[in-house]
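User: Predict the structure for this protein chain, please.
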Amino acid sequence: SSIFAPLHCPFRAASICAMSSAGGQRPAANRMTLAAFKSRLLGAKKGHSLLKKKRDALKTRFQALLKDIVDTKLQVGQGLKDASFSLAKANWANSGDDITANVVERAKRPSCLCKITADNVAGVTIPQFKLNHDPTKDASIATLGVAQGGAVIGACRTEYLKAIRMLVRLASLQTAFKTLDEEIKMTSRRVNALEYVLIPRVEDTVAYIVQELDEMAREEFFRVKKVVEKKKQKIAAEKLKMDQEEAAELAMANLAVGDNGAAAKQPKKKNKESAFDAPSAIQTKKDDDIVF
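Assistant: Here is the predicted structure, written as structure tokens:
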């Protein structure tokens, strides 16, 4: 799956190592890279949690198998001892002759078959062996020892059947034990790789990207601040220049107004007119005829 891809792919793991190491090439510090590494970190933590739970479940089953194996080994040892003793009694009941040749001669078809099934433990397939016994195929051997020792030979066959069942069970437990041992080792390596190698490196890379983004934000804020300050200085200079120009224009206008006022204060010569020169109030012009 994609969660464990950095572990399975050495090139991707090497690239992550190079990016996060002190002398290696750092990734591009942008929001897209930060989101990608955060999603990778989240997947790594989730995979680490799942693998840890899987390892715990496998260890629990491993401990239970260990106890069963010890008990089954003791039973197998006792069962094989009883089977050997029953074989010795069967030979003694048959006038001291070995019955092995007669048994091999009469055995045509196997009456015990071993089948393999699979068991699933936390996603791990464990093979299991099961013994199937068909008593109908023992008809040729059932007549063995009819003359003498038949009951002892039948008891011997029963003891060996029990021993074979315990041996098959022990083989199944040993196979599951070995499979679980290998799987626990592999899972532990993955958990340790995620916990002590991959996750710290990705966290270091995320911290580096966040630090770079913060630094870029501070630089951008400082740049904008300087630009705003320069604009304010420019606006203040332009305002000062405009004020100076307005003051100069106002001074020139006041100077012009002062000249006009001085000219207006000079006395004007008044023309003295006599009463005889005054216009007559009687109109000299003849009125037009008025038609009523």
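The longest helix spans residues 150-265.
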